[in-house]
Specification:
mainly alpha
Length: about 190
């Protein structure tokens, strides 16, 4: 597969939308996460629409809600917009309570299509890699970054995601996610 100018435009849009955003508790530009998720999607056989949606998977919930989704649809078509919407746990400000959003998203994944699960799993794999790295460096000082769920909520959510993906796929990424979450759990136990 060859990526087209659509991917170039999506990368520019992602960088523009998230330019002021940093990864939780770090100075790392947020676009690094988006690139990592898109890379994982491509490495696991995702098509260009899925790779574009991976670049934009947080745009709706973090950068403008329904107006941003309409812009994505206009620029990249309905399939990309559907994938982005399916990977978003909220499109309102303020967001609903954390646990409520996460439970609804987990229920949604039970019926999501393969491309949505691929993007979502890639997102959680990259997040888990970063959490494990930061746990090794910071220990328990890491958890206050996660205001919604904290330590226990975050561990519950990532374990729930890993279990869903192990059951429904994508298998290769699900196995990596499960291994990362198991490591997270062990590190959190001390």
């Amino acid at each position: 597969m060859e990526l087209t100018e659509r991917y170039d435009r999506a990368l520019q849009m992602a960088n523009h939308l998230h330019r002021q955003q940093r990864r939780k508790g770090t100075g790392t530009p947020y676009v690094g996460h988006l690139l990592a998720v898109s890379s994982l999607v491509l490495e696991c056989g995702g098509d260009e629409d899925a790779a574009i949606a991976a670049l934009l998977h947080d745009a709706v919930e973090d950068q403008g809600g329904p107006a941003t989704l309409a812009l994505i649809s206009d620029e990249f078509g309905p399939r990309v917009a559907e994938l982005v919407a399916a990977c978003s746990d909220s499109d309102t400000i303020p967001k609903p309570p954390w646990r409520e959003r996460k439970e609804a998203y987990l229920a949604h994944l039970e019926h999501a299509d393969d491309a949505t699960r691929l993007i979502s799993c890639a997102d959680k794999v990259h997040n888990s890699r970063c959490i494990v790295r930061d746990l090794l460096e910071l220990g328990e000082e890491l958890w206050p970054r996660f205001k919604g769920g904290g330590r226990d909520g975050s561990l519950w959510y990532y374990r729930s995601m890993a279990d869903i993906f192990l059951r429904l796929g994508p298998h290769r990424l699900a196995v990596e996610l499960d291994e990362l979450v198991t490591r997270m759990e062990r590190l959190a136990e001390g």
